[in-house]
Amino acid sequence: MNKKFLVQSLLSVIAFLFLFGCATKTPIELPPFSPTIFNTEVFESKVDNFIVTFDASSSMRHDYNGTSKFAIAKELGHRLNLTIPELGQTAGLRSFGHDPSVSRRHTELLYGMEKYSTTGAAGTLKSITKPGGWSPLGTALDAVQLDLEGLPGLHNSVIIISDGMDMEPKIAHVQALKDKYGSSICFYPIQVGDDPGGKAFLHEVSKIGGCGFYSNADNLMKGDGMAAFVEKVFLKEKEIAIAAPIVAERKDSDGDGVYDDEDQCPGTPVGAKVNAVGCWTLDSILFNFDKAEIKPEGYALLDAIVVILEKNPAMSVELQGHTDNVGTEAYNMDLSMRRSNAVANYLVDKGILRNRMATTGFGFKSPVALNSTMFGRSLNRRVEVRPY
Prior knowledge:
Elements: H1 2-23, E1 43-45, E2 49-56, E3 63-64, E4 67-68, H2 69-83, E5 90-97, E6 107-115, H3 118-125, H4 137-148, E7 156-162, H5 171-181, E8 185-191, H6 196-209, E9 215-216, H7 223-234, E10 235-237, E11 285-286, H8 299-311, E12 317-321, H9 329-349, E13 357-361, H10 374-380, E14 382-387
Parallel strand pairs: 2-5, 2-7, 7-8, 8-9, 12-13
Antiparallel strand pairs: 1-10, 3-4, 5-6, 11-14, 12-14
């Protein structure tokens, strides 16, 4: 009896420490992201075919800086897809590992090989909903040999998104893929997390390729880091024939700093901050769970909107409230309206007339991120500001 009581007591202490440790972790939100829009008049693809190989094995469910590596990898893939320009490349997405509820196969070609489409790739990335199983990277790379077989062009890139764990024996499969395609194939492993063994393995993968390089997901989550990666891996500047110089005045009709011939959003409001193609960039106002109070970090964005509205008295805005999917539809519709009204009240307090604002609530009907992750739900609790 004493021994049994001792074991039960020890298990109780371990359970308490585990629960206490989980309760004290504070999830760290991933950095905000605005994709770079590459000018296709300047750049062309230096890659004929590429395939993203995505690690959906059980080690990816482990925590890294307050967020699961799987959630980080999914968001990394999403941001990569938003940044790669559609330039006629042939593309594919192959996953490996898998929870049985997703697939009972060790590896699946979920997208391609076909002409690359941002929309098409995004839809299939969403289908990888849960990690599980072992790490059959070798099986996936053997399948990549067949994925690339017979495709036109001489430049193939393999992007590997993984934590690199439990894969040392798989290096022979990397070498076999290199041996088959020689100098026409390059490997670009991206590590999610900071496991030293995983880093060493993925560095070795990039060395076997000879023309690729290792990256860490931490450095690619922001727009500028991802843009630098995409440009280095996928793009080259077009060769432009030198012609006799033509001197012509270039105009910037809306005064946003982008010439009319490059401006994809003419008529930008006076004073608005624009991106490289002249479009007004507005981040969403984010809210805490089940709250309609504006976070302090949202004040600066709203104050900037006040300045724009003051400089453009004929302009109105629609404030669109949204929620995550926790709770009933009726409750979330009401919560989304309270959030849009909270933003409207803030703008009114700053001197903007209420009749210049329309408020609408969408509840959880229009998510911008996955509601299956804590990070995704935090992005869905928002108010979007739409000028009209």
